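Fold it.
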Amino acid sequence: MSARQNNLVLVDPDERLALNLGGSVLFYRRLSLGALAAIERQQLTMLPPSQGQGPRPWLPPQALEAAVAAHVLVGWQGVLGPDGEPVAYCPAAALRLPIAARRRLVERARNPELWPGEDT
């Protein structure tokens, strides 16, 4: 039986959780509400007016996912380049993560049921 957490725990900017993907590990932090709101504001796009309507706000899902992944990913271990050599973590290299890995990372960071040691 797991111990049930009775209190909320704030997201620590230095937090490091691990997501194992095969022989690689992605290190991430949970996504806070404040960070999500800021990311959504940054990614919001105004669509041009159409058929008598004014401009409409739109949040492109792929842009939101990429921005969330960039915010929560803080490092990795065992990630290889196309040549089979280890690649050091940096934001530029993180843009080259396969989309399936990025989606799993974002899902984990957003979903409290998947955080280690927390029950909802």
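Helices lie at 33-43, 61-72, 91-94, 99-110.
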